[in-house]
Specification:
Helices cover 75% and strands 1% of the residues. It has helices spanning 10-17, 20-29, 35-61, 65-83, 94-117, 126-157, 159-167, 172-197, 205-212, 217-250, 265-270, and strands at residues 89-90, 263-264. The longest helix is centred in the C-terminal third of the chain and has 34 residues, at 217-250. The protein starts with 9 loop residues before the first helix and ends with a helix. Pfam families: UPF0014. Its main location: membrane. The chain crosses the membrane at residues 13-30, 42-61, 67-88, 100-122, 128-148, 195-213, 225-247.
């Protein structure tokens, strides 16, 4: 017999929030110096989720395309900016590359899911469009950020070999394809790991939410299977796109490695 989802009071949420003390205790015991970051992360989690809760309540009440679409665009831009913040190095145009790769891959795959697989009508139904795009964006930005970071690190570590290959007449792609492969692999690994244990070790958020809301477990599983494959496709496309855009930024048309474009992120932040 299915039950309605239990409503949580502010007191219940507060009890759960106190569990962050465990993280703080670990940080203090091991002298990790993460107490302030943990406190700030906890505050941000509460504020951001409460804010999006109120926003989604308003969006669900006024389900119009001119309300849903701007929110989806904002989510994508935030994901693009977040995807460009990882790593010790950066380059001019990294933020634009992150936004473009995340935007194209996520929206293309989300369109397939909404129009072809789930076939919702209208397409901007916020109950489906916003959560599905959000899950795709969250995983795609992980792949993109890891891919860009690994590409820069691999090119830095292999600079001598890259320069030597170019000096011996190799094209820019021949010199860069090794680091590019490693970068794409790094970006795809998190999704592959997630797919390997889904349903056995972990129960994904969408499936858990549907089950808690009283949905049939088998129907919830079907939705989760669809979401997992959408995430996998978008993560792969986004990672490949980001790595290729990074490659185009760091290699000239004259087949030269533009190592001077790789900048230390800490130095840049001080300027």
């Amino acid at each position: 017999m299915s039950q309605t989802l239990q409503n949580l009071s502010l007191w219940d949420v507060g009890i759960a929030a106190l569990l962050i003390v465990v993280n703080g205790a670990v940080s203090v015991a091991l002298k990790l110096d993460l107490e302030r970051k943990l406190a700030w992360a906890a505050v941000r989690t509460i504020v951001q989720l409460l804010a999006i809760g109120y926003v989604l309540g308003w969006v669900f009440a006024y389900a119009r395309w001119f309300v849903v679409l701007p929110l989806m665009i904002l989510m994508t831009l935030i994901a693009g900016f977040a995807g460009a913040q990882r790593g010790l190095r950066t380059y001019a145009g990294q933020r634009a590359d992150s936004i473009v790769s995340i935007w194209i891959s996520s929206w293309l795959v989300a369109a397939v899911g909404l129009f072809v697989v789930i076939r919702i009508h209208p397409w901007y139904e916020p109950q489906y469009a916003i959560p599905i795009l959000g899950m795709i964006l969250g995983n795609t930005l992980t792949g993109v950020s890891l891919g860009i970071e690994r590409m820069m690190e691999e090119l830095t570590a292999r600079r001598d070999r890259v320069d030597m290959a170019l000096a011996l007449g190799a094209t820019r792609w021949e010199a860069a394809q090794g680091p590019a492969r490693q970068a794409v692999r790094a970006g795809m690994i998190p999704t592959l790991n997630q797919m390997a244990v889904v349903g056995v070790v972990s129960l994904p958020g969408m499936m858990t939410g549907q089950v808690l809301a009283g949905q049939s477990p088998l129907q919830a599983v079907r939705y989760q299977i669809v979401i997992m494959f959408l995430i996998a496709a978008s993560s792969a496309l986004g990672t490949v796109g980001a790595v290729l855009l990074t490659y185009r930024r760091l290699f000239s048309a004259e087949h030269r490695f533009l190592a001077s474009r790789l900048l230390d992120r800490q130095v840049q932040s001080r300027r």
